[in-house]
């Protein structure tokens, strides 16, 4: 969702993808590499054809150099996403998805779509799922009150998208809630002046 410049008080989608790139994913290496230390930790050794768990940023880098195959997460399948889409469209609650599903799916599909079965169908389901969840978010925002808000199973990208609207709405509620007190004080002050 593209936001107007004045509402961009949140983290950008690119920054969210950078944060998500620390998630660990499985790869099947095509090269041998000893255990290597990085700032975020030590990863490896890589020994084909054994799977290895490494950060997404490293997997993307190796995939771009044709040095590994990325093993898609269990949730990045047509069956799983179809189940979540049917839940999303039939249940009032948000379906349970990984907290950073949008960012991880995009990174994997951008560089390793050949490693994902039915990649185009997966892309289409992810798009439908995001649209259904955004629709629920918009409906939820229209029903906000200043007492409580509960949005379980919302992912990081979705929270980031509604944050600017939510903050503005809560500021308006706070102002409106304070106005009756100010009106009552003004009325009491006028009564004191009349006496």
UniProtKB/TrEMBL annotation:
<dbReference type="GO" id="GO:0000811">
    <property type="term" value="C:GINS complex"/>
</dbReference>
<dbReference type="InterPro" id="IPR056784">
    <property type="entry name" value="PSF2_N"/>
</dbReference>
<protein>
    <recommendedName>
        <fullName>DNA replication complex GINS protein PSF2</fullName>
    </recommendedName>
</protein>
<keyword id="KW-0159">Chromosome partition</keyword>
<feature type="domain" description="DNA replication complex GINS protein PSF2 N-terminal">
    <location>
        <begin position="12"/>
        <end position="71"/>
    </location>
</feature>
<feature type="domain" description="GINS subunit">
    <location>
        <begin position="75"/>
        <end position="176"/>
    </location>
</feature>
<dbReference type="GO" id="GO:0000727">
    <property type="term" value="P:double-strand break repair via break-induced replication"/>
</dbReference>
<comment type="subunit">
    <text>Component of the GINS complex.</text>
</comment>
<dbReference type="InterPro" id="IPR021151">
    <property type="entry name" value="GINS_A"/>
</dbReference>
<dbReference type="GO" id="GO:0006260">
    <property type="term" value="P:DNA replication"/>
</dbReference>
<dbReference type="Pfam" id="PF25005">
    <property type="entry name" value="PSF2_N"/>
</dbReference>
<dbReference type="GO" id="GO:0007059">
    <property type="term" value="P:chromosome segregation"/>
</dbReference>
<comment type="similarity">
    <text>Belongs to the GINS2/PSF2 family.</text>
</comment>
<dbReference type="Pfam" id="PF05916">
    <property type="entry name" value="Sld5"/>
</dbReference>
<dbReference type="InterPro" id="IPR036224">
    <property type="entry name" value="GINS_bundle-like_dom_sf"/>
</dbReference>
<keyword id="KW-0235">DNA replication</keyword>
<keyword id="KW-0539">Nucleus</keyword>
<dbReference type="InterPro" id="IPR007257">
    <property type="entry name" value="GINS_Psf2"/>
</dbReference>
């Amino acid at each position: 969702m593209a936001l107007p410049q004045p509402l961009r008080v949140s983290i950008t989608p690119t920054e969210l993808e950078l944060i998500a790139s620390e998630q660990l994913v499985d790869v099947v290496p095509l090269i041998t590499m000893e255990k290597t230390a990085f700032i975020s930790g030590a990863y490896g050794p890589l020994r084909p054809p054994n799977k290895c768990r490494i950060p997404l940023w490293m997997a993307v880098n190796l995939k771009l150099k044709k040095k590994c195959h990325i093993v898609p997460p269990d949730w990045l399948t047509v069956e799983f996403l179809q189940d979540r889409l049917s839940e999303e469209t039939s249940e009032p609650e948000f379906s349970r998805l990984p907290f950073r599903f949008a960012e991880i799916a995009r990174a994997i599909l951008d560089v390793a779509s050949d490693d994902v079965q039915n990649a185009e169908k997966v892309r289409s389901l992810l798009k439908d799922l995001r649209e259904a969840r955004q629709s629920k978010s918009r409906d939820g925002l229209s029903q906000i009150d200043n007492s409580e808000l509960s949005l379980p199973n919302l992912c990081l990208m979705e929270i980031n998208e509604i944050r600017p609207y939510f903050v503005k709405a809560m500021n308006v509620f706070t102002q409106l809630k304070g106005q009756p007190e100010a009106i009552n004080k003004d009325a009491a002050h006028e009564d004191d002046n009349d006496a």
